[in-house]
Amino acid sequence: MNIERLTNSVRNIPDFPIKGIQFKDVTTLFKDAELLKELSDGLYEMYKEKGITKVVGIESRGFIMGPMMAERLNAGFVPIRKKGKLPAATYEVTYTKEYGYDTIQIHQDALNDTDVVLLHDDLLATGGTMNAAVDLIKKFNPQKIYLSFLIELLDLKGRELFDPEIEINTIIRYNN
Ligand code: AMP
Predict the structure, then answer these.
(1) What is the greatest pairwise CA distance in the chain?
(2) Whole-model pTM?
(3) CA distance 90 to 153
(4) Residues 117-167: pLDDT tens digits?
(5) Residue 109 burial by CB count (10 A; 0-12/13-18/19+): exposed, middle or buried?
(6) Is residue 151 within 8 Å of 26, Cβ to Cβ?
(7) Is the CB of 120 under 6 A from ligand 1?
(8) Known catalytic residues?
(9) What spacing in Å lies between the alpha carbon of 125 and ligand 1's midpoint?
(10) Ligand 1 centroid to 57 CA: how many Å?
């Protein structure tokens, strides 16, 4: 993967959605056919030998590369959604974000203890969202959990929230 080209394709929007946030806009990466293919190939190479059975994507930007990875890895795709969106019985967790609070849910029949889970979101900031997602996934007692993000904001040290045995991959890294 040409990390520099991928990094340069992400658009920075200052003060969105609130003052002080440097918002990393990945739509400018996804709209470029060559870069999207490169990202998809790179992610596939990272995980093809891991025996992934389910890719779990976090609403909503985890729903872009998540299903793409699932299809390429011959795995199923499972959505984690904001409260009130999933129609069947759910588990839920409430957590704090870089800006605000949220509750996320997963269907109670989405996974089981034979699954090897790849949890995906676009960006690791404080890690609160993914940490809540890991708590949801642990309810199913899966074989193993891998974490994948396109972007990591290093200054926020989000990765320190996770158990050292959880493998975390990030592709594009910013200091702030
Ligand atoms: P956190 O829980 O703090 O790790 O925040 C991660 C979630 O919030 C991800 O779903 C991101 O899409 C979103 N997010 C947080 N900070 C940013 C940012 N600076 N730019 C874009 N998205 C962000």
Answers:
(1) 44
(2) 0.96
(3) 30
(4) 999 999 999 999 999 999 999 999 999 999 999 999 999 999 999 999 999
(5) exposed
(6) yes
(7) no
(8) 61, 98
(9) 5
(10) 14
